[in-house]
Amino acid sequence: MIGYVLLITAAIAMSFIVYSWMKTYVPKGELKCPDDVSMTITDTIRCTDAKMIVTIKNNGLFNIDGYTIKGDAYKGAVGVGKKDLYEQGYFYFGKPCKPQEKDDCISLPFGSDNLTDPLFTIKEVEITPIRAQSNAETGKNETIICGNAITKKTIEDCIIRLKN
Prior knowledge:
6-stranded antiparallel sheet
Protein backbone atom coordinates (compact mmCIF):
# COMPACT_ATOMS: atom_id res chain seq x y z
CA MET A 1 0.00 0.00 0.00
CA ILE A 2 2.77 2.44 0.92
CA GLY A 3 4.53 1.48 -2.34
CA TYR A 4 1.51 2.57 -4.39
CA VAL A 5 1.31 5.92 -2.59
CA LEU A 6 5.04 6.54 -3.19
CA LEU A 7 4.71 5.52 -6.84
CA ILE A 8 1.77 7.88 -7.48
CA THR A 9 3.53 10.74 -5.62
CA ALA A 10 6.71 10.23 -7.68
CA ALA A 11 4.68 10.17 -10.93
CA ILE A 12 2.91 13.44 -10.03
CA ALA A 13 6.20 15.09 -9.02
CA MET A 14 7.85 14.01 -12.29
CA SER A 15 4.91 15.32 -14.32
CA PHE A 16 5.33 18.78 -12.74
CA ILE A 17 9.06 18.73 -13.49
CA VAL A 18 8.54 17.67 -17.12
CA TYR A 19 5.75 20.26 -17.58
CA SER A 20 7.95 23.07 -16.21
CA TRP A 21 10.83 22.02 -18.44
CA MET A 22 8.68 21.70 -21.59
CA LYS A 23 7.03 25.09 -20.99
CA THR A 24 10.36 26.80 -21.72
CA TYR A 25 10.43 25.30 -25.23
CA VAL A 26 7.06 26.66 -26.31
CA PRO A 27 7.18 30.19 -27.79
CA LYS A 28 5.31 32.71 -25.67
CA GLY A 29 3.76 34.70 -28.47
CA GLU A 30 4.05 34.94 -32.19
CA LEU A 31 5.06 38.17 -33.87
CA LYS A 32 2.15 39.71 -35.71
CA CYS A 33 2.03 42.59 -38.09
CA PRO A 34 0.18 45.63 -36.71
CA ASP A 35 -3.27 46.22 -38.19
CA ASP A 36 -2.33 49.71 -39.38
CA VAL A 37 0.29 48.55 -41.92
CA SER A 38 -0.85 49.52 -45.40
CA MET A 39 0.60 50.29 -48.80
CA THR A 40 -0.86 51.24 -52.16
CA ILE A 41 0.31 51.28 -55.75
CA THR A 42 0.35 55.00 -56.60
CA ASP A 43 0.69 55.21 -60.40
CA THR A 44 -0.22 52.96 -63.18
CA ILE A 45 2.26 50.14 -63.42
CA ARG A 46 4.67 50.85 -66.27
CA CYS A 47 5.83 48.03 -68.52
CA THR A 48 8.76 48.70 -70.86
CA ASP A 49 11.46 46.52 -72.42
CA ALA A 50 9.93 43.34 -70.96
CA LYS A 51 10.20 44.79 -67.43
CA MET A 52 7.69 46.18 -64.94
CA ILE A 53 8.18 49.28 -62.77
CA VAL A 54 6.01 49.64 -59.66
CA THR A 55 5.73 52.77 -57.50
CA ILE A 56 4.15 52.31 -54.10
CA LYS A 57 3.27 54.54 -51.18
CA ASN A 58 3.21 53.68 -47.48
CA ASN A 59 -0.18 54.98 -46.32
CA GLY A 60 -0.11 53.09 -43.02
CA LEU A 61 1.19 54.08 -39.59
CA PHE A 62 4.37 51.94 -39.47
CA ASN A 63 7.61 51.63 -41.46
CA ILE A 64 7.71 49.09 -44.26
CA ASP A 65 11.04 47.46 -45.07
CA GLY A 66 10.07 45.75 -48.30
CA TYR A 67 7.40 43.67 -49.98
CA THR A 68 6.66 40.50 -51.85
CA ILE A 69 5.22 40.86 -55.33
CA LYS A 70 3.31 38.22 -57.26
CA GLY A 71 1.43 38.39 -60.51
CA ASP A 72 -1.28 36.41 -62.27
CA ALA A 73 0.82 35.16 -65.15
CA TYR A 74 -0.31 33.93 -68.54
CA LYS A 75 1.74 32.23 -71.24
CA GLY A 76 -0.21 32.95 -74.35
CA ALA A 77 -3.85 32.37 -73.40
CA VAL A 78 -3.03 29.78 -70.76
CA GLY A 79 -2.94 30.88 -67.11
CA VAL A 80 0.06 29.55 -65.20
CA GLY A 81 -1.01 30.85 -61.76
CA LYS A 82 0.68 33.28 -59.40
CA LYS A 83 4.39 33.83 -60.05
CA ASP A 84 6.98 35.72 -58.03
CA LEU A 85 7.90 38.77 -60.10
CA TYR A 86 11.16 39.33 -58.26
CA GLU A 87 13.76 36.55 -58.42
CA GLN A 88 14.27 36.36 -54.65
CA GLY A 89 10.51 36.47 -54.06
CA TYR A 90 10.77 39.67 -52.02
CA PHE A 91 12.13 43.20 -52.46
CA TYR A 92 13.82 45.23 -49.70
CA PHE A 93 14.16 49.00 -49.80
CA GLY A 94 17.59 50.43 -48.99
CA LYS A 95 16.07 52.22 -46.01
CA PRO A 96 12.60 51.73 -44.50
CA CYS A 97 9.71 53.34 -46.33
CA LYS A 98 8.26 55.67 -43.70
CA PRO A 99 4.53 56.27 -43.25
CA GLN A 100 2.93 59.16 -45.11
CA GLU A 101 6.25 60.18 -46.71
CA LYS A 102 5.99 62.70 -49.50
CA ASP A 103 8.25 60.62 -51.73
CA ASP A 104 6.98 57.35 -53.01
CA CYS A 105 8.91 54.17 -52.43
CA ILE A 106 10.34 53.28 -55.81
CA SER A 107 11.28 49.72 -56.61
CA LEU A 108 13.68 48.39 -59.19
CA PRO A 109 12.27 47.15 -62.49
CA PHE A 110 10.99 43.58 -62.21
CA GLY A 111 11.75 41.01 -64.83
CA SER A 112 14.68 38.97 -66.08
CA ASP A 113 17.58 40.35 -68.13
CA ASN A 114 18.15 36.93 -69.67
CA LEU A 115 16.73 37.07 -73.20
CA THR A 116 16.21 33.29 -73.26
CA ASP A 117 13.70 33.47 -70.38
CA PRO A 118 10.09 33.21 -71.55
CA LEU A 119 7.70 36.15 -71.84
CA PHE A 120 4.67 36.17 -69.54
CA THR A 121 1.62 38.41 -69.64
CA ILE A 122 0.76 39.79 -66.19
CA LYS A 123 -2.87 40.81 -65.65
CA GLU A 124 -2.98 41.38 -61.87
CA VAL A 125 -0.32 42.32 -59.33
CA GLU A 126 -0.44 41.39 -55.62
CA ILE A 127 1.85 43.19 -53.16
CA THR A 128 2.32 42.19 -49.50
CA PRO A 129 4.33 44.43 -47.11
CA ILE A 130 7.31 43.14 -45.13
CA ARG A 131 8.40 44.60 -41.77
CA ALA A 132 11.36 44.06 -39.47
CA GLN A 133 10.06 43.86 -35.92
CA SER A 134 11.85 43.32 -32.63
CA ASN A 135 11.12 40.02 -30.92
CA ALA A 136 10.65 40.56 -27.17
CA GLU A 137 11.82 37.02 -26.35
CA THR A 138 15.09 37.03 -28.31
CA GLY A 139 15.73 40.77 -28.59
CA LYS A 140 16.50 40.34 -32.30
CA ASN A 141 14.76 41.85 -35.31
CA GLU A 142 12.71 39.34 -37.26
CA THR A 143 11.16 39.67 -40.69
CA ILE A 144 7.37 39.53 -40.78
CA ILE A 145 5.22 39.27 -43.89
CA CYS A 146 2.01 41.24 -43.32
CA GLY A 147 -0.58 38.94 -44.88
CA ASN A 148 -3.38 41.15 -43.54
CA ALA A 149 -2.27 44.10 -45.72
CA ILE A 150 -2.27 42.64 -49.25
CA THR A 151 -2.79 45.14 -52.09
CA LYS A 152 -4.03 43.97 -55.50
CA LYS A 153 -4.19 45.91 -58.74
CA THR A 154 -5.49 44.81 -62.12
CA ILE A 155 -3.35 45.95 -65.04
CA GLU A 156 -3.61 45.94 -68.79
CA ASP A 157 -1.60 43.17 -70.41
CA CYS A 158 1.93 43.80 -69.15
CA ILE A 159 4.49 41.59 -70.88
CA ILE A 160 7.68 40.81 -68.94
CA ARG A 161 10.41 38.17 -68.93
CA LEU A 162 10.47 35.81 -65.93
CA LYS A 163 12.50 32.78 -64.98
CA ASN A 164 10.55 29.55 -65.41
